[in-house]
Amino acid sequence: MSDTRPDGEGNDAAADMFMRGVEATLARLPGPLSRVAWALLDRWPGRIAIGTAKSCVRIELFDRSMTIAAQLFTSVFPILIAVASWVHPDVSQIAGQSALPGASEAAVAQALESPTNATFGLVGTFIVLVSATSLSRAMTRAWAAIWELPRPKSKLGSAWRWVAVVLGLATSLVVVREVVRLAGDIPPGHFWEVVVAFACDVTVAIAVPWILMAGVLSVRHLTPGALIYATAMAFIRPASGVFLPQALETSASRYGSIGVAFTYLAWLYAIAWVLLVAGVLGAVVVKDRGVVGAWLRGSHEPGTLPPPEVADDDEALDRPDPRVEHESRDG
Fold first, then answer.
1. What is the per-residue pLDDT for 95?
2. How far apart are CA 184 and CA 194, in angstroms?
């Protein structure tokens, strides 16, 4: 089906070209090998692998990852600084939340303690929040592309979803780190740190698309991708705790604050890439025709409208029901 959604939610032409390339490659194999390859691709692991690769091409994974990483960098940190200027927290804790090198941490702490923070008044905070909602819109486009759904209409009544997501993501940087630290005090410490961090990652990976997509994607549909993301982060988080401070220290000593910024951007790109790949893989698993996919879908297909008491009335009226389009195509 060709992509008729605005804003280029998915690059179906690139996905079709990718599949033609796969078919041409398999056709060049000797007869027995070609039949075996097609048989493997028709099984569950093969369907998931080829479906994930096709979807990654269709959503333009690398471009979207960079977009979300850049929006995270320019949205989340200003919110943290704005909040800090209002509540006057222990700046040494705020500055140390992301394992900054000593020189950079001191610079951030000094900035937070500076009297110029008085300029971060109501107007400044409002501007920061409005600008930060670009992150929410970028993530909404990403999940709409992943699940091949129309993007929820950008209405003033939906603005609370954008603000809730950016505030939630900014808060999670501080809260999750503190909760994980407290869990480490419960023996066996490392075990509970991993469990709590895993639960927090699953919660974030479910809550963000569920809120942004206005509940069209159910928790059941989003859980596989969230579990995949949390599993990947269980390995990435310890590694980043070791290598990120070293990379930041090196960048700060060689290039100053601009080096720290680029290092953080690269790290955020990796996190965004993992998040999108996990979302794509989860969507492919849910939409697969096999038994696992049928069980995960439950009684309705991903993207069908929730009951009226769940959906927002204004969005329910404007968003087309995918079931109607599906029935019309089958007819």
1. 47
2. 9
